[in-house]
Amino acid sequence: MNDKLLLAPLKNPRRALDIGCGTGTWAVDFAEAYPDTLTIGTDLSPIQPDNRPPNLSFEIDDCCSDWVYPEDHFDYIHVRQMYGSVADWPKFYKECYDHLAPGGYLEQAELNPVPKCDDGSIEPGDAMDECGKLAVRCGEAFGKSLMVEEFMQDEIKKAGFTEVAKITYKWPIGAWSNDPRLKELGRWNLLHWNEGPVDLRSGQEMEF
């Protein structure tokens, strides 16, 4: 996103909601960037910092349950990397729609866990191909799809949202790109892959 905190063209938002805020890093950055916006970050785990901007609060909440906030309440709702966390996306988007004030924005950033390439170097049956297929099967097995990136635009429209736009960014694995920015992103993504996914056949961390 070229170092942008968000892409929505916000103008003096009064209230914002960060769903699945995790450690709260993004919510803190947002609250500092918009000091006049009352911001709430929600998550299932109480792992957020006590030291935070005065306009930011954290709450323990399950976004898959019925929402407790008033309707037409928020001017901006932020969702990031919730793939594999929501079983009923249509219900979730309907909650977002009902709780956004008229003219408000929903912004969602998701990863696609299936590795892709431009040059066909990921061949059927190799480790990267099998990893992607396994991710899809895992999501199907526990009833929470990891492939929300592929269908979220349509589901958001079905919930009633208008002027829905989708922007896709490439995220390399490893520092192979000639583009300095993509090279840096690739280094971070390689760290993510090495410290995150596990080769289920060998029980060892995956190395690339």
In short:
With 208 residues, this protein is α/β, with parallel strands linked by helices.
Verbal overview:
- It is a single chain.
- With 208 residues, the protein is α/β, with parallel strands linked by helices.
- Helix content is 30%, strand content 16%.
- It has five helices and five strands; from the N terminus they run E-H-E-E-E-H-E-H-H-H.
- It has helices at residues 25-33, 89-99, 127-142, 148-158, 180-195; strands at residues 15-19, 38-43, 56-60, 74-80, 100-109.
- Strands 3-2-1-4-5 form a five-stranded parallel beta sheet.
- Helix 1 links the parallel strand 1 (15-19) and strand 2.
- Helix 2 crosses helix 4 (148-158).
- The longest helix has 16 residues, at 127-142.
- It is globular, with a radius of gyration of 18 Å.
- The relative contact order is 0.11.
- The model is unreliable at 199-208 (pLDDT under 50).
Helix tally? 5
Strand order of the largest sheet: 3-2-1-4-5
Report the portion of residues in β strands. 15-25%
What profile does the largest beta sheet have? Answer: 5 strands, parallel
Q: Looking at the structure, what is the overall shape?
A: globular
The overall strand count is 5
Radius of gyration: 18 Å
Low-pLDDT runs of 5+ residues are 199-208
Task: Please supply descriptive tags for the structure shown above.
208 residues, alpha/beta, 5-stranded parallel sheet, 5 strands, disordered C terminus
List the helices and strands and how they pair.
Elements: E1 15-19, H1 25-33, E2 38-43, E3 56-60, E4 74-80, H2 89-99, E5 100-109, H3 127-142, H4 148-158, H5 180-195
Parallel strand pairs: 1-2, 1-4, 2-3, 4-5
Helix pairs in contact: 2-4
